[in-house]
Amino acid sequence: MKKIHFAPILLSVLFSGCAYNQPMGLSSASIGSQYERPSGMAEGRAKRWQFFPCYSLCPVGDDSLIAAVNNALDGKVGDTLANVYVERKTIAFPHKFFPLLERTEVVVMGTLVKYNTKEFTPDKDFVYSGNAGDMWAQMLSFNKGERMRYLKGLPDWNRSMLIEFALDKEAARRIETGSRDREVFALLLLREPKTYTPKAELRSEASVNLSECNSYDCIITLSPGKQAEALRLITQTDNKLIHLMLINSAKRRIKACYSNRTPSVVTTPEVQLIYNEADFLENLCKSGELNG
Predict the structure, then answer these.
(1) Residue among 29, 30, 41 nearest 72 (CA)
(2) Given CA atoms 214, 217, 218, 220 in this order, what sign does their dihedral have?
């Protein structure tokens, strides 16, 4: 009968070491509100060594969750982690029940989150909507200090949208002297806008030569009846270039045109119709001029 020697087997079990994993937790949260944005994934590790005979009295290293998260964020574009998975790994030698050496490692993995710069309270979150018209309107309501703080916290693309919006307002002669629009324009572009005469100071219609009032900017200052007369004069002269420029200017101001609806013209929030422009666009739309 063959003998079985248990001593070598017992020694191999005792001195081969032991490793085991212990999942610690998993968190899940939505990302992407106006306060935060995801910027990638990150993994961090924190280790601690313990030795016989002092063990936890004289450890080497730090296996805390805080240390693992700090290591995950080190050198990364992020302020914190979201949707975090945490696991603890332990290696004991020669055996976990009586180790001479033990290493504990905490591993965290999650989504990097970068906080946006917010200088305003949550009740003013609408100022970060990303809509140029909304942002401009809210800047008008701020005092000088709030405007500076607001612009400082805006991403570059939002600032670019505001600058384009300001230039459009200047080109359309919609920035009056002494207005808040003028203050915001100067803050954005570091210069004063071109001078503009308020509507109340415009020349009376009686002094307007309709045969010379053939541009879009001129016609929208007229009453609906005078607008129709000016269009009739342009048609009679058969000047196709002026007519085409007029229609193209109108098309740039609208989003959609429905001849069978009231109102028939739809504009984007960024477009602020001035003078009698709405009447002019409505007439062009219903007459089929803006189709195509």
Answers:
(1) 41
(2) positive
Q: Along the 292 residues of the chain, how does pLDDT read in single tens digits?
A: 455 554 555 445 444 556 667 767 677 776 656 567 777 888 999 998 887 777 777 788 888 888 999 998 887 777 888 888 899 888 887 766 667 788 889 999 998 887 765 444 444 444 455 677 778 877 888 888 888 888 877 777 778 888 888 888 887 777 877 888 889 999 988 888 876 555 544 455 666 778 788 888 888 888 888 888 888 888 888 888 888 888 888 888 888 888 777 778 888 766 777 778 888 998 888 888 887 6
| Cβ contacts of 131-136, under 8 Å, gap ≥ 24 | 131/269, 131/270, 132/161, 132/162, 132/164, 132/165, 132/270, 133/165, 133/268, 133/269, 133/270, 133/271, 133/272, 134/269, 135/161, 135/162, 135/165, 136/162, 136/165, 136/166, 136/184
Alpha-carbon span 172 to 28, nearest angstrom: 49
Nearest to 176 by CA among 279, 277, 274: 274
pTM across the whole model: 0.37
Answer for the pair 226, 203: CB distance below 8 angstroms, yes or no. no
Give the integer Cα–Cα distance in Å for 92 and 204.
Answer: 95
Question: Measured between alpha carbons, how far is 112 from 73 in angstroms, rounded to an integer?
Answer: 8
**Residues 140, 142, 147, 152, CA torsion sign:** negative
How far are the Cα atoms of 44, 260, 264 from residue 228, in angstroms, in the given order? 72, 20, 17
First-to-final CA distance of the chain: 101
DSSP assignment letter at 76: S
Query: Cβ atoms within 10 A of the Cβ of 141, count?
Result: 11
